[in-house]
Structure formats: C-alpha cells, structure tokens
Specification:
The chain is 30% helix and 19% strand. The chain is of the alpha/beta class.
Length: 476
C-alpha cells in the first residue's frame, strides 16, 4: 500500500527493527481523534531467536523467483489477456512465480484518482472488469500453470473500499468510532478505504472462506498479504492452518517484518530493512557492511529458518519512492545480484528487465514502455542460477566472505551438496582493489556472466571497477 512505511529514521537500527512490526499501530493508538478512541489493537513484537519456524517452505518455492505483475500498467489495454499473451516471454525470463497485484473490483466511494487504488477492494469474490472477466483470469492461471509457472494473488485483509459489499451485508465487520461511523486505517492517508474489525470472529470466517474460493475455483498457488502488520497474528495463524489443510503446498507471504508471523502463519516476510539498506549504501549514507547489520537483526528477531523476500523495488517503491535508477544509481545491477545471493526469495517487478526508468502512476493508466534491454539477459542469468543451482536454493548454506575492504565490497559464498556459488559486489562508485579469503573459495571457478575461469587456494585478489560484480560458480 502507498504510505505504508514512514521515512527512514535515525533511530538505532536494532531498535528500529525491533519496533518495526508495531510502531505504526502504536502511533495510531496515541492519536487523539474520536476514531482513535476505539482503535486499541497493538500487538507486541516477539523476539523469536531460538524458535523454529513452524511451517516448512513448500519445495517449489525454494528455487523460484517471484515476478510481480501490475496488470493495469502491464500493457496499453491493462488486461488479463495481454499478460496471458506475454507469458512465454515471462517464462523465458526464468521466473517461476507470478504475483498479481489485487485483481478485485475497486471501490468508487472516496476513490483516489480516476481509476482508484488496487488496494481498495469492493468485492473479494469478483474480478476488476477493468482487467477482464473471471473466465479471463481462470484462463490466465491455467495457461501459466501449463507453462510451469505458479500464481499467487495479492490480498488486502486489513481494510476494504468504503462501498465493499460487506458494508451493507455485514456492517458489523468494520471498525466504528464512538458515533458508530466506520473509520479509515489510522496514521495513513488511506482515505479511500475503511478499517476491518478483527475482534469479530465472523469476519475471520468470511475472510478465510473468500481465500478458499480462489484456491478451489481458480487453483491459485498462494497469496501475498498486504499490510499484514495491521491484522492480529492470531487470525493469520488460524487462516494459515486452514489454507494448508486445503492445499498443503500453498505459499503464504506477509507484507510485514513481524517475527512471530513465521512461527505458525507465514512462510516468508518482507525484508523492508534490507531494501532500505540498499538505498542507504548506494547513496553513500551507509557502508556495504550495513547489510551485515540487517542480517544480524534478522537472526536475533526471527525464528530459525525464517525466510525473507529480497528486492530492490516493487509497486510501492517504484511509484512513491523512485525508480531503481533514482534510488540506486549505478548500483542497480550489483544490488540485484545481492538479492539473489542472500538466502531467501528474490523478486523482480515487471519492467525491471526492460530498464523501467519511470515512476508508474498509481491511480491511473500509465503503461510500461517495453523494450529490448541488456537487463533482460542479466536477469536471465540470475534466475537460471536460482532455479538450477542448488547453492542458491532457499535454505542452502550461506557464509559471508570477508574482504580487506568490507566497507565497499560485499562478498558471500553459498553451498549445497559440495556445489558452491560465490559473489563479490562493489557497492560503491569507486574502483576497489582488495583481497578476500575463505576456505570455501578453494577450487576452480567459472564466472557466470563472462565465462572467465579462476583457480583459487582459498584467497582471491579482487579488482572491481565502480559498481562491478563477480558471480563465480564452482566447477568439479
């Protein structure tokens, strides 16, 4: 959702991470508006170090790359049919999972802009006629499955449009101020939506039934849950158990960075802090070692085996914070390499492979300018490694490779079954020469992008131009 995250803070990064799951809600409670007097939900963040994530990641997710599809902006007509026609190209890009931004009808009451926000749903059981029909979407899913692609839907459980069908059928599902009026989520400018009230257990049943409808009727493979921080973890736990009973290999992704979400509810969380770290490093506000700081925070706060989705951009970042070229400058490629080398799940936002260099408008039609671009081949190399090389599967061994210039160079080696991938990324605009050493660097290597070979006894001499990167694949 636009406006989800406040501006970067100068707060101690450990404390900022600890509070990230509840700080916004706490601020809401502190408000003195009449609506805030009834809005009392605040859930403390749990420190989950030493606990084991309860739900193992489905096998198909361990090697997938997620591709986010913004149907409205994907083509000139903004239709399911246009996306379906392009599926062979998307498959050839090497991604394995399509994440569709919300496809539900958009509310008209208090709508923003001429077309409104995708995140203001009017009916959870229907599709936006702007995109096509339910049958069009069913055909799109079936075609994707026929090409070996999985499909997950974006789901907004925290709020709905003001004219959602439940407003007439189930007005008790919504938060009310002391005068009995529904209220928008507090602390944001989301005036086009109204807050749901999860104290009402009938609402739990209605949400879970709606989710099950898309699994049963359209065979979707999972969900990405918008603003998951705003909904009680107890609901997510209940939802997750029922969705897994319905489909054991379902994938559930939280747009949140709340540690306890991965104890029983979600398979993966957003890596908000890591994405902000990329921006800070690229802009010279932090050293490359800041990535280590964030990884340390995750190890302390999240349960063992916790999984993150790593990305340099998505619909929110592109529209509201700037393109990757605005935020990362010359670092677009090395930071993308980092998202694939970190243990987790990488994301590509539609258009990145075409060098998307504009902020897509959010509330009106603004189609992507598709064009041949060198980044397409760059991403195909990364997705092929993610898909085919066991060392880049989620959960494979991850080790940080120390260099003599850790403030500039991020080095990592991944390993599984004796097969290894090592990467070194210069995350600065300066040329760097330094040494790196790690026992797992011994052996013969081939560079994934250039084919260059290297034989190492455990240490290597790195000569990296500004923003340059090396991805080495071990050879027998």
């Amino acid at each position: 959702m636009p406006g989800l995250r406040p501006p970067p803070s100068t707060m101690n990064p450990f404390r900022r991470c600890l509070l990230s799951g509840v700080s916004i809600l706490a601020a809401c409670v502190a408000l003195t508006s009449r609506a805030a007097e009834t809005f009392t939900f605040v859930e403390p963040t749990e420190v989950c170090f030493g606990k084991t994530a309860a739900a193992p990641l489905p096998a198909w997710v361990r090697t997938t790359t997620i591709y986010e599809v913004n149907v409205r902006q994907y083509s000139k007509d903004g239709s399911f049919a246009a996306v379906e026609a392009d599926l062979p190209r998307i498959r050839d890009l090497g991604v394995g999972t399509l994440w569709f931004m919300p496809i539900h009808p958009i509310g008209e009451k208090n709508r923003k802009g001429p077309l409104g926000s995708y995140y203001a749903a009017r009916d959870y059981l229907a599709v936006n006629p702007e995109f096509g029909t339910a049958e069009d979407f069913r055909r799109l899913v079936n075609t994707a499955h026929g090409l070996g692609l999985r499909v997950i839907l974006d789901w907004v459980a925290n709020h709905t449009a003001w004219d959602h069908v439940w407003m007439q059928r189930h007005p008790e599902y919504f938060w009310r101020d002391r005068d009995g009026q529904p209220v928008p989520p507090l602390g944001f400018d989301w005036t086009d939506v109204v807050q749901l009230d999860y104290r009402k257990r009938d609402l739990w049943r209605a949400q879970i039934d709606a989710l099950a409808y898309w699994v049963r009727e359209f065979d979707v493979d999972g969900f990405r849950f918008d603003y998951a921080t705003g909904v009680p973890t107890a609901f997510w736990d209940e939802m997750s158990g029922q969705m897994r009973a319905l489909r054991p290999d379902i994938f559930l992704l939280a747009e949140a960075q709340v540690p306890q979400h991965q104890l029983r509810a979600f398979h993966a969380s957003y890596s908000f802090d890591m994405m902000h770290a990329y921006n800070a490093i690229a802009q010279g506000r932090e050293a490359a070692g800041h990535i280590d700081d964030v990884l340390a925070q995750y190890r302390v706060l999240f349960p063992a085996g916790g999984v993150f989705m790593h990305y340099t951009t998505n619909h929110d970042e592109n529209s509201w914070q700037g393109t990757v070229f605005e935020r990362l400058g010359g670092g677009v490629r090395p930071f993308a390499v980092v998202t694939f080398m970190l243990d987790g799940i990488p994301l590509i936002y539609n258009g990145q492979e075409a060098g998307l260099d504009k902020r897509l408008k959010f509330f009106e039609r603004d189609p992507i300018a598709w064009q041949p671009h060198p980044l397409a081949g760059f991403y195909r190399t990364l997705t092929a490694l993610r898909r085919d090389h066991p060392a880049l599967a989620t959960g494979a061994t991850f080790a940080r490779v120390p260099t003599a210039k850790n403030a500039s160079v991020f080095g990592v080696v991944r390993e599984s079954g004796g097969r290894r991938v090592a990467a070194f990324c210069n995350l600065t605009a300066r040329d760097v020469t330094c040494d790196a050493a790690h026992e797992q660097l011994s052996g013969r290597w081939r560079e994934a992008f250039t084919g260059e070979t290297l034989v190492s006894a455990g240490s290597v001499r790195l000569e990296l131009r500004s923003w340059e990167y090396r991805v080495w694949v071990s050879e027998p």
